[in-house]
Amino acid sequence: MTTKSKRGLRFFLPALTLSLTLSACSGGNSPDASPAESSASATSTSSASPAATGKYDPAIELSTVRVLYDGDTFAGDVSMDNNIWYQTYDSELGIKVKNLWTVPSAQWEQKMNITIASNNIPDFMAVNSKQLNQLMKSDMIQDLTQAYNDYATPLTRQIMESDNGIGMKSATFQGKLMALPSMSSSLDQASMIWVRTDWLTKLGLAEPKTMDDVLKISEAFTNGDPDGNGKKDTYGLAVQKELFGWLAALQGFFEGYHAYPNSWIKDASGKLVYGSVQPEVKTALAKLQEMYNAGQIDREFGVKDYGKLAEDMTANRVGLQFGMSGNAFYPYPDHVKNNPDADWKAFPIVSADDKPAKVALNNGVLQYYVVNKNVKNPEAVVKLLNFAVEKQYGEKGRDLAFWTSEDAPNLWHTAAVIGQDARQNINIYLNIKDAAANGAELSYDAKDNYDQIQKFLAGDKSFWGTYRWAGEEGSLSVLDLYDTEKRIQFNEFYGAATDTMTAKMASLDKIRLETFTRIIMGSASIDEFDKFVSQWNSLGGADITQEVNDWAASLQ
Amino acid sequence: MHKSERTGKWSTELPLHLMVLPAAVLIAIFSYGPMVGLTIAFQDFNPSKGFFGSPFNNLDNFRYVLQLPDLPGILFNTVYISMLKIVAGGIVPILFAVLLNEVRVRFFKRTVQTLVYLPHFLSWVLLGGILIEILSPSSGIVNAVLGFFGIEPVFFLGDYRIFPYVLVATDVWKEFGFGTIVYLAALTAVDPRLYEACVIDGGNRWKQTIHVTIPALFPVIILLLTLSLGNILNAGFDQVFNLYSPLVYRSGDVIDTAVYRMGLLDMQFGVATAVGLFKSVVSLVFISLSYFLAYRLAGYRIF
Amino acid sequence: MMVQKSSPGRMLFQFANYSLLAIIAAVCCLPLIHIAAISFSSSSAATAGLVNVWPVDFTTMAYQYTLSKSEFLTSFLVALERIAIGVPLAMLLTVLVAFPLSKESRHFRFRSVYVWYFVVTILFNGGLIPFYVLLKELHLLDTIWALTLPAAVPVFNVILLLNFMRGLPRELSEAAYIDGAGHWSTLWKVIFPLSKPVLATVLLFTCVTHWNSWFDGLILMNDPHNYPLQSYLQTVIINQDPRFMTVSELKVLSEVSNRTAKAAQTLVAALPILLVYPFLQRFFISGIVLGSVKG
Fold first, then answer.
1. Less Cβ around it within 10 Å: N or C end of chain C?
2. CB distance A190 to A263 below 8 Å
3. Does ipTM exceed 0.90?
4. Beta pairing partners, A369
5. Which domains occur in chain C, in start order?
6. Of C43, C129, C248, the CB nearest to A334
7. What is the per-residue pLDDT across A302-349, written as a single tens digit (0 to 9) for each?
8. Which residue of C has its CA nearest to B192?
9. pLDDT tens sequence across C262-286
10. Signal peptide location in the record (chain A) (predicted)?
11. Inter-residue contact A138 to B274 (CB < 8 Å)
């Protein structure tokens, strides 16, 4: 029996992700931006003109809503409503910013959805792409093309284009810039291999350079008793039930076979097709099926989520996974802390043939700043952006007064608008490498990491995470490799979800997940894949493909 | 004729109306007020235009739902699982309350009663993690115990044939404490003279239970059963979401989880409301049916 | 209470019964013990799944993290305020509605109309958006009334109570009426005292509902200082679910083990109810004095 409680529609939600970006950009080369598809963003001139930074007199008021980051603490006088950013917005820019509400990140999407649905949006705010679409369809936000062109400083432009301009493109609809993307690095999401290097040594195996190596490692970890306890209680490859994600995922494995299940890629004729229904996927699935059959994949992977997989790794049950650069911070540090002999290291993904493997990357923008249709001074938001970018990456370096303080270690979280260099994490790594090799000057963010790495090398194991992330041969070095060797397969589709996508994609994903899982577990033969392809097409995939290609055509 | 409760006159009934009044007003405001929003189910909702300004798209939202590829399967799963829960969730607390009622030692009775209410406080997020462990075919306790009896390990959470029953069993375990409280409370109100009469007629403990205890519980049982029929299309999102996986979609995917995966809850207001409205209507039909059946056939008003 | 006679069969039954009940009770409390153990364990032990029913690497870190912030105390007070206002209000209205509706139609016409008026609201729900808009228009957001008024008429409890009241012997209230009492005094002097078992039940449910609600607090309160306890506790837990976690999120995850924090949160949330519950139990279990009815 259940108590009847009044629940409205339940909004479940992924956390808002505002990436912590700690880097000075300085010399980072911006890869050349692909030509903008509309004339609007390309042609602007004015930059450091007074208009870009001038003060409003009398002051104007802008309302917004804010997110509390996990783990933040503010002491003393500092709060989301009252801090140096807001005070300076007022004194220097003549903009009074007021928070209508503040909510923890886990509830942000829910609260924002209601705010939008009840037609209650503030003057400006940060939204995700689904919400951006809705706001556009409902005609609740305004075109920022003019404001951006006239008021964005060169530095701002540089930062906004730092991801090949994809972010800006994804915020542009029919030639109009409807939002200011807040960058987060898509490169950070590239897959890579993480291996228990102490197990490699123990079993006399080489570091993985080809898919064959990986298969050998998987087999050895399963049968070679790497944890040395005499029991056959380990397995080869870590996989969680969703098959794709940020830990124990399979993107990297598929990429080794040049399959990109979550991306739209160009086929031989230049048309866009979906990665999941391409023949390369079948090859990879067949291999996974073999591995499962040989006991190299956990028989219960189908019910295990991230938490459970983290447990498995921490409990010495598995030593090989395809994950992401951030895994250096979770789940490994805990494990390494308690198992002094254990060590994990990141490697670039490997290929099953002689063509180098590429990582699939999506548009990395997770958040967009939008401006309410009724706001008379939309350029004020651009000014806030200019201000932030200046304080972060300006010539004088990071303005620490705005960045951190005794009362608020993460003071910069209180800023209402933030611009972020997409290359920040990579730049940390490059800077550190440069400093170690040539004694180059350390940027503000690189410095912390550098110090931690030094401490680790001197014996303080608690900084293992930083070392394996930004240190020599750390996971960032893998990203750097992908970047410099151009081993990236960008998702060719980065527009808003099409109509059929909104309607059918979730069902198609469900079928895909079920089919792939059954194939891997051997309860369906590999030829089931062909059935899946035709099912996918007939149940809406063909329509989606058509819509995606129409979108691509509209960009010309 | 002595003065007893008068009937039918406004003056005597007025105090009763007044008693109901404050609550009726609050309900009008907070429950009926928002029902205006049900119109969204028939609209192409645009927040900037609101409920009154958005264009109507008649039954399009409903058609959208009906076109979902696996709808029949999902509907079946939902109803099947709910019905099992209603039945099992109805019987177990009754049995338990009756058994508990036999206990003489007060301390034991109170402790047991408290302990069985505990699972209610655990979220399915937590329980999900725990259940995955104990139901594991390779390392879980349950299968270890089954092994003692020579039974092969069962992949409870990964076998679509068993999954619905796992859902029902764990849900009953979590919530039976709730029903027990209600039944125990009802049991305390049973007139002792009825028991005495039964004893005089030669009834032993068992007969007392059958002829006095259970019948005394009938009203509450029927009531709780009927009200839980209102949940017929709520197979329990929290629980299913935390326990299901692609392996068991075909028997475990229910309306709410399917709707969730579609992200329907985020921005597809019209469709989400349509689904909710549909569920409500079905619930109303079931409850009304039960009410009127009981009334016509047994002259008994359930509530 | 039932009449009983001792016999070997009876003793066997009692033995089996007590054993069965004990086993079931144990199975019910094991998960909570397990979670309590996790909450007192180190994060790496918890992540490795090493904890069973006893803490491993005993530490109070999770509790420190959960309880240390001043928001904990503020939200606790908000929760208390919510209960202090919401529970008596709901109880009062529950009784006031249940009594008239427990009468038969001939004594209270429109009874059935009212009943259906209330029951329909359990089934139909306009949805979160209209609800939110309504509260906004009434300027109830960020007030304690947003948390207490909508829940002021818990229809399920009303029906439970009315059902029980209907089952009370009619002679009792008849006697009161004969003595000249009106509805109001009959309700409070006769029916109310007799309804203690169900009232205690309903009281418990109402308290638990108010104590456990977290969703409304998060949505209806704009200022985090107004969050009741459970809403605040929700914010302590980091959502691990998204498709992609950024490096920063992963960093935070590593510092605060989600497992132990979640476990501590559960314990903190469940504890008060567990303390209150035994007090209310007296009413469910002890018999009521029905002997006052003169045959």
1. C
2. no
3. no
4. A126, A180
5. 63-285 (1.10.3720.10)
6. C43
7. 989 888 888 889 889 999 999 999 899 888 887 888 788 899 999 999
8. C1
9. 788 778 877 887 787 777 776 655 5
10. 1-24
11. no
